[in-house]
Design brief:
The protein is an alpha/beta fold. It contains six helices and five strands, in the order βαβααβααββα. It has a five-stranded parallel beta sheet with strand order 3-2-1-4-5. The model has no long low-confidence stretch (mean pLDDT 93).
Length: 150
């Protein structure tokens, strides 16, 4: 299982004007990931555009950072896919999957912007931008992970 992870509106509120709130929801997400050790993480956040993978991994606990296996490419590099899909974040996810060794692998995405994905996509766990990964988001993520037998 691959979990495609956004940051803004997921790991902290968006907008987030108080830098002390950055990653305030990360401990909750890491606790979920610890309960599902087979889940690997790919960063789909725009933070990947200005930071390296190792810089991104630095934000996470050591046991979780080792499970961050990559970052999605930019949708701008896949105009053919965008024409077919029409949803930027989903285009990036699908491009990453197609370039992986396991393009058929199960996946979920956690994001606060549903309009970046196809409508009613069952793979999406949408968070509330203003609060991030809260109790409701945690419950929905756990349910989806259990449903695929992880």
């Amino acid at each position: 299982m691959i979990l495609f992870l956004d940051f803004d509106g997921v790991l902290h509120p968006d907008p987030c004007y108080d830098k002390q709130l950055f990653f305030c929801c990360l401990p909750r997400l890491e606790n979920v990931l610890r309960d599902f050790p087979k889940v690997r993480v790919v960063i789909s956040s725009t933070w990947r555009e200005t930071r390296s993978l190792s810089e991104i991994q630095f934000f996470f606990s050591a046991d979780i950072s080792s499970r961050i296996i990559g970052m999605t490419p930019s949708w701008r590099d896949f105009p053919d896919l965008l024409e077919v899909v029409g949803y930027q974040r989903q285009t990036e996810v699908e491009a990453w999957l197609r370039g992986s060794e396991e393009p058929w692998i199960s996946w979920l995405a956690i994001d606060d912007k549903a309009f970046l994905f196809k409508p009613f996509l069952p793979n999406l766990v949408k968070t509330n931008s203003l609060v991030g990964f809260d109790d409701d988001s945690e419950l929905r993520l756990r349910q989806k992970l259990l449903a695929v037998g992880i």
